[in-house]
Amino acid sequence: MTYTRRLFLASAAGTGLASACAMPHLPSLQKSLDVEILDKSARDLISPGARLDVLASGYTWSEGPVWDRKRRCLYFSDVPENTCWKWTEDEGATVFLRPSGAPADETNGFREPGANGLAISHDGRLLICNHGRRAVQSMDIDTKQRTTLVSAYDGKPLNSPNDVVEASDGTLFFTDPPYGLEGMNDSPLKAQDANGVYRFSPDGSLTRVISTMTFPNGVALSPDETTLYVTQSDPDAAHLLRMGLGGTEPELLFDAAPYMAEDAPGLPDGLAIDETGHIFTTGPGGVFILSADGIPLARIKTGKATANCCFGDPDGRTLYLTAHDTLMRIRTRTRGLGWS
C-alpha cells in the first residue's frame, strides 16, 4: 500500500474518514480522558483527572490550531477540504477561510490544496502554510489580504509548506514535506531534491537547515530560541528531533516507535511548548508531554490520530487539539510559551 501520512495516522482509528461537512456549532461535550502519567513530575503540568472537551466534529483532517489572543478565538484548518475554521466559546466553529489554500480551479496535481499549519506573527498577522500555493503567506486577519513571503528555494518551487514558527527577531522556520502533492515524493510537480526544513530571515534570505529528514512535519522553538524541534511523520522513523541553532546537526530527542500500536493511532506531527520548556507533541495515541530532554512524562490519550495542538485561552492554560475529525481541549496546570 502506498504510504500517506493521513492514511497511516487515521487507519487505526477504525472509523474511516469523517464527513467533509463539519458542524458549524456543536455544544461542548464531556468525554472521559485517560491521562497516562509516566513520571510523577507530570502532575505539575496536568491533572491526572483532567477532562477532555469535544468542541466540534465532522472534519476530514483537522490541523494547524492557533489561538488569537487579541480576538479570543481559535483558528484551525481542515486541509483536504481547503477550509479554515474559527472557533469561539459563544459561536462554536464557523468558516473563516474558504478556500484556505488555492482556489478549486487551480488545484490540479494537488492531493491536499488547503492551508495546513497556522501561526500568529508578532505583528498580529496570520501566518499560513499554504499547500496549494506552495508558499508561506502572511495575512491581515481583518481584511484577509494575503502576502506571499516565500514560495521557492534555489529558484525552484517549494513542495507544500506544512508548519511554521516565528522567532522573536522575525525569523521563520518552516517544514516542507510533499503532503500537498498528488503522489507526494513521486509527484511530477515536486522540484525540490529534499523534504527540507528552512530558515527564512527578515532580510528575505532562505536557508535549508535540514535536508536529511524523510517527512518533516511540526516545528517549534525552545523558550530561549537556541533549539529547533522538528517532528518526523514517518512510520519507519517516528521521531522528534532537535537541532541547536548554532550550526549543530539534528539529533534524535524522542522515538515514538515503542508506543505505536493498533489502539494508539497517530505519529509525531504538530507540537507546542510551554513556558518552562516542556514539549507537548502529538504521537501514537494522542499527545505526549516530554521534558526538554525528551523524557516522556505523560500521555493525553485522545483515542484518535492527533495532528496538532496549541495553547490558548486568556490565561494560556488550555491545550487545544485537532484530533483527526475533531476539535478538543483540555485544561493544564502549565502555561503556554508567550503568555508571561
Automatic annotation (TrEMBL):
<keyword id="KW-0378">Hydrolase</keyword>
<feature type="binding site">
    <location>
        <position position="162"/>
    </location>
    <ligand>
        <name>substrate</name>
    </ligand>
</feature>
<dbReference type="InterPro" id="IPR051262">
    <property type="entry name" value="SMP-30/CGR1_Lactonase"/>
</dbReference>
<feature type="domain" description="SMP-30/Gluconolactonase/LRE-like region">
    <location>
        <begin position="61"/>
        <end position="324"/>
    </location>
</feature>
<keyword id="KW-0862">Zinc</keyword>
<dbReference type="InterPro" id="IPR011042">
    <property type="entry name" value="6-blade_b-propeller_TolB-like"/>
</dbReference>
<feature type="active site" description="Proton donor/acceptor">
    <location>
        <position position="269"/>
    </location>
</feature>
<dbReference type="GO" id="GO:0046872">
    <property type="term" value="F:metal ion binding"/>
</dbReference>
<feature type="binding site">
    <location>
        <position position="269"/>
    </location>
    <ligand>
        <name>a divalent metal cation</name>
    </ligand>
</feature>
<dbReference type="GO" id="GO:0016787">
    <property type="term" value="F:hydrolase activity"/>
</dbReference>
<protein>
    <recommendedName>
        <fullName>SMP-30/Gluconolactonase/LRE-like region domain-containing protein</fullName>
    </recommendedName>
</protein>
<feature type="signal peptide">
    <location>
        <begin position="1"/>
        <end position="22"/>
    </location>
</feature>
<keyword id="KW-0479">Metal-binding</keyword>
<dbReference type="InterPro" id="IPR005511">
    <property type="entry name" value="SMP-30"/>
</dbReference>
<dbReference type="Pfam" id="PF08450">
    <property type="entry name" value="SGL"/>
</dbReference>
<feature type="binding site">
    <location>
        <position position="63"/>
    </location>
    <ligand>
        <name>a divalent metal cation</name>
    </ligand>
</feature>
<feature type="binding site">
    <location>
        <position position="217"/>
    </location>
    <ligand>
        <name>a divalent metal cation</name>
    </ligand>
</feature>
<keyword id="KW-0732">Signal</keyword>
<dbReference type="InterPro" id="IPR013658">
    <property type="entry name" value="SGL"/>
</dbReference>
